Amino acid sequence: MKGFLEETLELIVQKHDSLSNHIFILPSKRAGTFLKNLIAQKTTQTSFAPEILSTESFIEKISGLSYASNLEQLFELYNTYLQSKPQEVETFYSFSKWGQTLLQDFNEIDRYLIETKDLFSNLSAIQEITHWSPDAPKTQMMDDYLKFWNNLDAIYQTFKNSLLKNNKGHQGLVYRTATEKLTEYLKTKQNNIFVFLGFNALNTSESKIIQYILEYHNSDIYWDMDSYFMQDSIHDASLFLRSHKKDWNYFKTNNFKGVSNYYNTPKKIEIIGAPKNISQAKYVGNLLRHIKIESPDSIKNTAVILADETLLNPIINSIPKEIDAINITMGYALEKTTLASFFNSFFELYLGNNSKGWFYSNLLSFISHPTTTTLINEKEEDCCSKISTTIKTKNWSYISTSKIKALAPDNVILSELFVDESYTPITFIEKCLHIISELKNIYTSQSNSLALEYLYRFNSLFNQLNTLIQEYNYVNDLKSLLSLYNELLSSETLDFKGDPIEGLQIMGMLESRNLDFETVIITSVNEGILPSGKSNNSFIPFDLKINHGLPTYKEKDAVYTYHFYRLLQRAKNIYLIYNTEPDVLEGGEKSRLITQLLTDENKTKDIKEKVATPIIIPNVKDLEIIEKDSALLELIKEHATKGFSPTSLSNYIRNPIDFYKRNLLKIEDVLAVEETVAANTFGTIVHDTLEDLYTPFIGKLLDAEALKTSKKQISTLVKKHFARTYSEGDITQGKNLLAFNVIIRYIERFVDLEIMQLKQNSIKIIGLEQQLRVKLHFPELDFPVTLKGKLDRIDEENGSLRIIDYKTGRVEGKNVTIKNWEEVTTEYSFSKAFQLLCYSIMYNANNPISELQAGILTFKNLNAGLLKFAYQEGKRKSANDSIINQEILTLFTKELKSLVLEICNPNSPFIEKDV
């Protein structure tokens, strides 16, 4: 298959003996690389190479200007904005949000050579009509707003002049200047032949320049279009070319060259739907593998076109290992490197710093970053891990610089990273450059060439920022600096090394201009991506654009339609992949271009449709089974000897695997900072405060007046236990302050209820937070079994013995009432009843009883009173149901024995429960 460039080059070579005096102008640099390679192949004798330019480079040469970077334009525009003396001056950070849109409008206005005075006058009138009632009196804000729009032409002129003064311009200004200097430029090129290849949509500047050269200079132009579309008077693929052929004077006397007849040749077209982006990438990888296996040489003439360039990473990771040569035109985004996330984390660290210190989440995120650990641990191994563990253990929400330095007093890098001084943008950039210098030394010693390449690019980036900030002193804070940094970073890429001609080609839609491949794979053929659809990133309304001849989304859609069909013209194997699960981020429904293709009667015979779905292997979760080997049996024996607690046995009832991991292997939850008081910490503080509050009453009858007096200590005691249990956590604000007051309120209400009960009952405190242990004798086991636990409170109410367990979570009466003894050791919902019975056995072993009552006081429902354990034999409840006597304890001991023997049975594995 001969592509457009090869065919056109052969025609040119037939007409001219030498190409050394030719100047080829193409839409992109990429096409120029391919053309240069083709010229080398076709040339049979030594000669000077012709000049090959992209459109932008060609226009730049004519204008004599250089392109200003986006940031330079933004700074210059802000400078112009300040000169217009607005009543309320916006900060550079705020201005940059809408300044970009204004820059785009200025750029478009100049590229299309629009008379600015009329346009801005119309725009100002529209703003006034749209926003304000003519009869209503205008406020100062309204006047300022309208003044800005009235001054827009003056802002534009001042901005343009300031750029020209520096011999620079935005793209539109360079194009406008080129049209003015064209004749002057052509005088220097009298002996050259201009050849324009593969153009389509042209702005007014480009159109005027090309038409002038064609009419008044030795030149030629070749279009890349199929006759199938040229003959269709309504097809968007040929919209611009039909217009050029009709409107240009040149074509009244000259042929319209470059029209081919390939589109209607037989093709293999597959339209594939795949769910989400990753599935598209995986499908492409699988497709490439099949192509490589079936026809190894065809990969050299295969292109993967990414309509959505964010698919680059997934596509790269999906390329099969069988393909050894790849060329990627787009480059790897610098913002996706680990070094980019490091500097973002460093910015966030300092932006989050305040008078209280460094916020823990920003700090932990920063010191856990691989680049930070490389920096800090170079001098002191595990320094970062030590800092992280200390912060989590001591529960620091905000950490002062002195605390950080105290953890590693000899680590110089750590001291340099964390300082209390307020950074200006310039000093912060200097700090970043210093970090880069330190990293350079480390990576050089490690011979890490890839990391050094990243560092070089970031060094250039920060130096560029430094130059801009010193030239324009508008960036006065780190927030604005971060915005600029992100703006600059988003446009930076790392180029992939390789032969640009050989191997599989991966490129964006615009890079494919003028290039032809036998096999074309296009991804993300969805509405909102291909074509991109409506986008209103402009201050100029749709109607005003049409009136002044500016392009709208309709023209933009026609451009993408041309690129799409141009790729299909000469291709023999075409795979169009779209996302079947449309959403806001990943495009809309299947593209109209696919629908258009499906309705083309001349192509339906070539098309095959299918929906690709990944092979789904059901992830059936097998319940974990852990056999008891000798080591595990030894752990069980050790645990049984030290003592089963009611909580550990409840863990087993809930899920034996939880018991195995938490109680036998001692695997605790991941250590983390309690930014807000956790539930277990909350409960501990309540328990400890009540113990201190009631300790003076042990062995005594409670007295209402004494309790009223003790209420005054509650706040002090809660503070004391917060300081002890919540380590160095802050309880002076936020949710922690609320938790502090809730605990005080809980305990005050509890004491108030006790005082009310004392009006009708006498209560004697027997014990608080008693640690009890009892040995259980089971003949079936050859080792002792201990049951241990802490009883929150033992008292007597009107002579009746009570065991009370405090709970800060919600408990209901049904959780402590059982009807079937087997359920108490098999159903976790009765874990509270199980615990109360365990406490009763332990107390009875130390202090034999005739009967007692055991219950739970839940602070979330104190009005419910004591929720007493009850064994309900019949359908009706009775007062005797809540009595725990020797018969009840015997029945429970039987169930407890069965549970313990099951745990200790070597032939009974731990089997996971589906909870």
Structural commentary:
By secondary structure, this protein is an alpha/beta fold. Helices cover 49% and strands 14% of the residues. The strands form nine sheets. It has a seven-stranded parallel β-sheet. Helix 9 runs parallel beside helix 10 and helix 28 runs antiparallel to helix 29. It is elongated and about 120 Å long. 34% of the residues are buried. The model has no long low-confidence stretch (mean pLDDT 88).
In a nutshell, what does this entry contain?
Helix content is 49%, strand content 14%. The chain has 915 residues and is an alpha/beta fold.
Which overall shape is indicated by the principal axes computed on the Cα atoms? elongated
The quaternary structure here is single chain
Kindly estimate the percentage of residues that lie in beta strands according to DSSP: 5-15%
Uncertain spans: none
Radius of gyration: 40 Å
Strand order of the biggest β-sheet: 11-16-10-17-18-9-19
Mean pLDDT: 88
Helicity level, as a percent range?
Answer: 40-55%
Q: With helices defined by DSSP (H or I, 4 residues minimum), what is the helix count?
A: 35
Largest sheet: 7 strands, parallel
Straight-line N-to-C gap? 63 Å
Task: Supply the helix-strand structural class.
Answer: alpha/beta
- The total strand number stands at 29
